[in-house]
Amino acid sequence: MRAAVTGRSVAGQVFLLQVVIVLLLVVAAVVAQVLQVRRDSDTEAGNRSLAVAETFANAPGTAAALRTPDPTKLLQPKAEAVRKATGVDFVVVMNTDGIRYTHPKPDRIGKKFVGTIAPAVAGGIVTEHVNGTIGPLVQVVVPVKDSAGTVVGLVSAGITTAHVGGTADQQLPLLLWAAAAALALATGGTALVSRRLLRQTHGLGPHEMTRMYEHHDAVLHAVREGVLIVGDDARLLLANDEAHRLLGLPEDAERRSVLELGLDDETAALLASGRVATDEVHLVKDRLLAINQRPTDLRGGPAGSVTTLRDSTELRALSGRAEVARERLNMLYDAGVGIGTSLDVTRTAAELAELAVPRFADFATVDLFDAVLHGEEPRPGTALRRAAGAGVRDGSPLYPVGEHIRFVATSPQARSLTTGQSVVVPRLREAPGWRAQHPERTDQVLEFGIHSMITVPLRAGSLVLGVANFWRSEKPEPFDSEELALAEELVARAAVSIDNARRYTREHSMAVTLQRSLLPRTLPEQGALDIAYRYLPAQSGVGGDWFDVLPLSGARVALVVGDVVGHGLHAAATMGRLRTAVHNFSSLDLPPDELLGLLDELVGRIDQDETSADGSAAITGATCLYAVYDPVSRHCTLARAGHPPPAVVHPDGRVEFPEVPAGPPLGLGGLPFETAELELAEDSRLVLYTDGLVEDRDRDIDEGLELLRDALGRTPDASPEETCRTVLDRLPARPSDDVALIVARTRVLGADRVAEWQVPADPAAVSEVRASVTRTLTEWGLEELDFTTELILSELVTNAIRYGRAPIGVRLLRERTLICEVSDASTTSPHLRYAASTDEGGRGLFLVAQIAERWGTRYIPNGKIIWAEQPLP
User: Fold this and answer.
1) Residue 64 CA to chain centroid, in angstroms?
2) pLDDT: is 837 or 85 the higher one?
3) What DSSP element (H or E) covers 491?
4) Is-contact 144 155, C-beta < 8 A?
5) Domain PPM-type phosphatase: where (predicted)?
6) Rounded distance between C-alpha atoms, residue 198 and residue 208, angstroms
7) Strand partners, 639
8) Which of 327, 704, 825, 841 lies at a 20 to 30 A Cα distance from 532?
9) What are phi and psi of 94, to 5 degrees?
10) At what angle do helices 786-803 and 844-851 cross, to 10 degrees?
11) Residue range 523-746, CATH number
């Protein structure tokens, strides 16, 4: 074929000539077809346009419509109907001056017709080819005559040639197929001629034939594989020198049947059959021969078969050892990727046992010190626990997983733990030291069929974490030194993973302990809110989510929820620092926005303090939501720093997410925080949470908020505990991030437990305040507190009158304690001091501090409040 294509032979020249002739014929036929189609298209377009125009011009009512005042109104619908029915592109009716009455585009009605109309006005027919806006077309103009034969108007119809030229699409593919068939026939004829001419010589000259024969002969006799060619009659046609040597063939073997050459029956039958064979191993005399056989007529050659012979006597032994080495390498590779997939000590030990069975041993057990299982360093001399086990059969009498084991000094395990060296026991029945461990159990082990073992210490640096034991029962051969080396390599890799898991367990336990010590263990007593909470740790370990409930003065309660980005000890420690700071700042009775501002400055200082030596700073990401609820006014003041908004479940079951201005996360600085104030009805539920509740890898926060809304909507009239349970039931058992959740149901301090008075700025008003307080305490049944309360209020009101500014107010709250509050418009806060013996004043606030359980000052937008609490009797 290559010779034919390149034209180096007669067949090639004939092939090229035929291709050129066929291509010329195809081009000529296509050109003729295109010209004929164009002519037919023009003729068809003219005939169709003429038929439509004449039919419309001679239609009843056309001439009469032209004489009406508004011909367009009558003729436009008809013209469009005819155009659509006949498939022409336009039907235009015009007067003898060429002014259109109809057109497919109404905006062209009333304009002059483009084309020749003079012959048609004279009573003739005009056919012309024009290039219109829609392409090349044929249009015909015919006259419209009245009954007297007078031309009263004109009708023009036209159609583009592209709309009637479908013949080419039908005939051109047929023509191309015919050309392709001609090319195929020409190619086939040329191939037959080439095959006829080149069959005997394959296109080679005498010198090329001689050189090819010399090369083939040299290769045939020099190759290190035996080569046989057998005809379809089972006669040997060719055998090279290596085949004579491997098979021991006689000198006159060629031209004889392979069944007569003295070969064994199996090998002779294979050679005579001519069937396909791939690396079949036959024993010929004292040699193992790998035989490959293929037929010679697969590509049109003569019938028969070609056979190659390879001596594999020595290779078989080498391949066996190579297979064992390959399997061991595979096992070590699998150990590298399959052991230590988790940071769990027990799971890592189980992965070692599962990998070893059954590829290396029939049973495998791993024994670790108890301290290792808890993340601590091993303590030699203590008992071990069986951490993992695997076997090819169930019901083995070996120690079960989970049992404590104390090995006797003569046992192989004890020797490994003491010396740090591996021990091989080829025959357990002959090992008295091993049998001394537990005579009854060891007898059961031997009866079960276990006969050999290897014990390898699990060493990580200078630490011995335990021992790994490999037992053999199915294979009769005992463990040998090569298998000991493999066991040590497997255990060495597993020991590193177990030690990593141990260290992680220790760090995780420390982080969990730290976090639990930093989170509130119990909620403080307060009467403003009924609270339930939940905290779920993340899958990846300890996180930085926290929450708190902080009683404030005036029976108010602060709720705080925060989140430190990240996991581990750093996040837990940062969380503890922020929680402590919130405790301290809340004692100042600051508004939520001011408290978050101070917290933002603290996080900024933390980032500055933790700048590393190279100047790079580890930025602390944290969010926080702080809310203060007042049970007297039922007002809740909130502010948030990059935290998800709270949810409110109203008493009627309606759920909403109130608009709380979203400040920046803590630590960014430079931007103020804003507060929002809500008025909550009694028995409303305020829900605070961290982002782990509503956001994870599989959904965004908007979807999570809708799921939370749905869960809260299913809990009308539910208690906070039931609400927490319902909300968390839709989460996975171990979420991808920490989840902190607080549900607080509001209570109201009724008017029967609140008393208020306005006090004039007159010292004489103090006695009136004492009298009013006495009456109120008598109504509340708190006569025992009468004296101390009068003393406290007398001092606080006197200070307000003397040092403060009007208006001055007094309020008593009966909650868990009796709360006395005195407010004034001054922002100056009194300070507790020790008065000298010669001082006339300065002892009143000291007496208040001694009598009251707690006292303090909080600032309000229009002044301050000094308060004091007394325990109820």
Assistant:
1) 79
2) 85
3) helix 481-518
4) yes
5) 526-746
6) 14
7) 626
8) 704
9) -140, 165
10) 140
11) 3.60.40.10
d(CA 623, CA 643): 5
As separate numbers, helices (DSSP H) first and strands (DSSP E) second, the chain gives: 23, 31
Q: Decide: residue 691, CB within 10 A, 0-12 exposed, 13-18 middle, 19+ buried.
A: buried
What is the CB-side half-sphere exposure of residue 575 using CA atoms within 13 A?
31
Q: Which of 392, 449, 384, 395 shows the shortest CA–CA distance to 417? A: 384
DSSP 611: B
* Domain 754-871 -> CATH class: alpha beta
pLDDT in tens, 183-229: 677 667 666 665 665 555 555 545 565 666 666 666 666 777 888 88
The CA distance from 297 to 76, in Å, is 81
Residue 144 CA to residue 92 CA, distance in Å, equals 12
- Which tokens go with 607? 């980032």
CA angle in degrees (0–180, nearest 5) for 644-648-649: 140
- In 3-state terms, what secondary structure has residue 616? coil
Residue with tokens 């290396």: 360
Query: What's the number of CA atoms in the CB half-sphere (13 Å) around residue 412?
Result: 23
Model pLDDT, residue 9 = 44
Contact (Cβ atoms closer than 8 angstroms) between residue 534 and residue 724? yes
Look at the domain 343-509 and name its fold. Beta-Lactamase (3.30.450)
Architecture of domain 13-160: 2-Layer Sandwich (3.30)
β 739-746/808-814 pair status: unpaired
Backbone angles phi, psi at 499, to 5 degrees: -65, -40
**In this predicted structure, which of 60-74, 169-183, 231-245 has the lowest mean pLDDT?**
169-183
- With bands split at pLDDT 50, 70 and 90, how would you rate the model's confidence at 496? very high
| Cα(402)–Cα(396) distance, integer angstroms | 15
